[in-house]
Amino acid sequence: MIEWRDSEDRDHGGSLFAAFAALARGEAWSFPALRPHQREPWHSFTVQVAALALIRAGLDTLPDSEAAWRDLLIGLTPEWPDGEAWELVVDDWSKPALLQPPTVAATDRAAYKNRLATPDALDMLVTAKNHDVKQERMIGASEQDWLFALVTLQTTEGFLGAGNYGVSRMNGGFASRMSLGVRPGGGAAAGFRRDVLRLVDHGRARSERRGGVPLLWTVPWDGTVSLNYGDLDELYVEICRRVRLERADDGVIAARAAGSKCARVAAAELKGMTEDPWAPIKADRSSSHTPTGAGFGYRQMATLLDAKKIVRPLLSEPHNGDASEGLSIVAAALVRGQGKTEGLHRRSVPVSRWETISAYEEAPLDRIGAVAEKRAGEANEASRRLGRALISLVQGGPEKARLDDDAAKKKTERWLEQFNRMVDGEFFDAPFWAEAAGDEANHRSDWRNRLYGIACDVFDTAIKAVPRTEVRRIRAIARARSFLDGQMRKWINEVQHGE
After folding, report:
1. With the C-alpha atoms ordered 437, 438, 439, 444, is the resulting torsion angle positive or negative?
2. What is the dihedral of CA 181, 182, 187, 193, to 10 degrees?
3. Could you tell me the end-to-end alpha-carbon distance of the chain, in angstroms, rounded to an integer?
């Protein structure tokens, strides 16, 4: 049983096939049992599975009934006509279960020695001594809790020690599988429909589209053999771990896990460039982009939208079926580190003036990216000038500030972080979209003046921490303020007549 909620906040539930039907009908706005870090993996899983099924069946439209989706998905696994590949628990381990590969030989079952009693023990979060997120707390979990944990583990997990390899769709075992896409308004269902139809259209338009194994959990695995990337469908849904769920006599589900001697997909040399429709690629095509623990602030978003730095993924590009209103640019990742989690990061940037921006010959996101790159560069320059004034302030206002003073720089970090937070809150505002839409104005002067205003607000906060001797305090504030004003006004005057 999977639960979903509609646009009027009413609860519904049904099978996996019923959930696909509700998404296709536009009724499933959210899945309340999803934990925050499971949201994007679930979206990717449902979209990839649906697109694969439609492409294999030769269909261009989404069916809206549970029975039709049952036929479609079971048709994607013809070797298992009784639907074992879509069941959460299958007692016969020589057959697949959902996201759980079959064993090669009956003796392989003995390798599954690690018993996991709760879905959050199976899930991919790496927590620090039970502090961040409490461990193994999902006692008496439902089937959907196990399903969401399996989806997240098998499609986004990285390397976690010997025998625990990660997915192929990211740049190395300690990287992260991130998502960058354009999403319509209308909840989970709208995003599902948009991305599925986009992938189906893209697949239909290319005679050279690569087929192959679509669902990796349907292939037997004893942990000793990797699958070749070239033998897989472009949209393959992967698994990275040997896991099987079992149900006790009282109905309680637990997991059994075994290690492997190799990764499930032999694709290390691809460095994450696996045609993942949500994965941004570095512009030099050396690897997929790996986000950092800094998340998706304005600088990171500007980088992701900059065509000189990033090759954007398919599902971040506009589609003919996109509405002119209600779109957002969404970036998301659970950032992984070596034996740790560096934060769940997600940013949704509502897009304005899309119809006007799209009217130009230039690709809409290229225009948006160009504005973001200019604004981010100017914010960086304003931060640098503010930093110099703050150094003068903490040094007590000398006649000539020592700008290479590392101790002083360290003291200014908190105020520069405050500056960046304030800039971030105003970065994608109405003037940003007016510039992207080509409105006539001196955008450079306006933005620099606003940055100056933010810098002054931060400076006013910083003066409360300057030396307390009144004479020194007055001198420090006066000289540092003069330094800031001079630096910023000269910079603003450079664009007083436009670019």
Report:
1. positive
2. -90
3. 59
Lookup result for tokens 């500007």: 302
- Identify the pLDDT of residue 11: 97
**Alpha-carbon separation of residue 133 from 128, 129, 174, 190, 199 (angstroms):** 8, 9, 20, 30, 35
Query: 249 with 196, same domain?
Result: yes
191 & 292 share domain: yes
Kindly give, in sequence order, each residue whose CB lies less than 8 Å from that of residue 174, ignoring residues fewer than 6 positions away. 158, 159, 336, 337, 338
Beta bridge partners of 2: 14
Go through 132-168 and write b for each residue having 16 or more CB atoms within 10 A of its CB, e for each that does not: ebeeeebeebebbbbbbbbbbbbbbbbbbeebbbbbb
Output the six-digit token pair for 164: 């625990």
What is the predicted pLDDT for the residue at 139? 60
> Up-side HSE of residue 344: CA atoms within 13 Å toward CB?
14
Do 9 and 132 belong together in one domain?
yes
Amino acid code (one letter) for 343 = G
The whole-number pLDDT of residue 216 equals: 98
- Chain segment 367-420, per-residue pLDDT in tens: 999 999 999 999 999 999 999 999 999 998 888 888 889 998 999 999 999 999
pLDDT value for 412: 93
Whether the Cβ atoms of residue 227 and residue 217 lie closer than 8 Å to each other: no
Which residues, listed in sequence order, are joined to residue 207 by a DSSP beta bridge? none
Give the residue carrying structure tokens 């405050």: 418
Would you say 182 and 193 are in contact if contact means Cβ atoms under 8 Å apart?
A: no
So what's the pLDDT on residue 342?
Answer: 85
Q: Is residue 357 part of a domain?
A: no
Q: What is the DSSP letter of 250?
A: T
Q: How far apart are CA 69 and CA 47, in angstroms?
A: 13
C-alpha to C-alpha distance for 72 and 22, rounded to whole angstroms: 15
Helix (H, G, I), strand (E, B) or coil at 135: coil
* Domain co-membership, 311 together with 451: no
Which of 287, 319, 352 corresponds to the end of one domain?
A: 352
151 and 267 assigned to the same domain = yes
Same domain? 415 vs 275:
no
Residues of the chain with pLDDT under 50: 127-132
Report the distance separating Cα 151 and Cα 157, nearest Å. 10
The DSSP line for 62-106 is ---SHHHHHHHHHHT-TT-TT-GGG-S--S-TTS-BTTBPPPSSG
The domain in which residue 305 lies consists of: 2-352
Q: Quick one: which of 403, 389, 414 has its CA closest to 476?
A: 389
List, in sequence order, every residue forming a beta bridge with 232; answer none if it has no partner.
213
